[in-house]
Amino acid sequence: MSYFMVDVEADGPIPGDYSLVSFGAVLVNQRLDTTFYGRCKPISEKWIPAALEVSGHTREQTEAFDDPQTVFQQFGEWITQHSNGRPFFVSDNNGFDWQFINWYFHHFLGNNPFGHSSTNLGSLYKGLEKDAFVNFKHLRQTTHTHHPVDDAKGNAEALLHMKQSMGLKISLK
Question: Pfam families attached here (predicted)?
Fold first, then answer.
């Protein structure tokens, strides 16, 4: 099984009505040097300025981004190329990130290489600490910038810390 840490930036709260702006993925291994970065042009006329502002892009910039179907075809091929066994989706906020990635894969390609499940990084940490109120974010080494590759890398660093120092039982292939 291969773990992929994913982060999404979007211009609203849900896919379909709003658009995924950009996303990053990191293959979780010791080097964290295998990454994917996708930028998608809007699929909807709706957008929330404050949500888009988080991504660091203007609406005009996003309109020049790549076709989502092409981006997700490339992302799917990248996942297949870098998976040793089943690819597994992990993110900081999988309630948000998963819904966009899953929707875009199904909408544009008809399937999702991650299957039907994902894991929330914060929940893993809470379980390891046996405390529903703790936060893992202090385990990141890479600064959280809202560039999705940076953010995915920082979250992957936290996952590696959980494995190496806290006893999280995952096999990284």
Answer: RNase_T
Q: Which two three-digit tokens encode residue 124?
A: 């893993």
Q: Quick count: other Cβ atoms within 10 Å of Cβ 63?
A: 10
Q: In what order do the strands lie in the sheet with 35-39?
A: 35-39, 20-27, 2-10, 87-91, 118-120
- Whole-angstrom CA distances from 121 to 41, 139, 155 are 28, 11, 8
Pick the CATH number of 2-166 from 2.60.40.10, 3.30.420.10, 3.40.640.10, 3.10.20.740: 3.30.420.10
Residue 172: pLDDT band with limits 50, 70, 90: confident
> Structure tokens of 95?
């309630």
In this prediction the pTM is 0.96
End-to-end CA distance of the chain: 7
Q: What is the DSSP letter of 114?
A: T
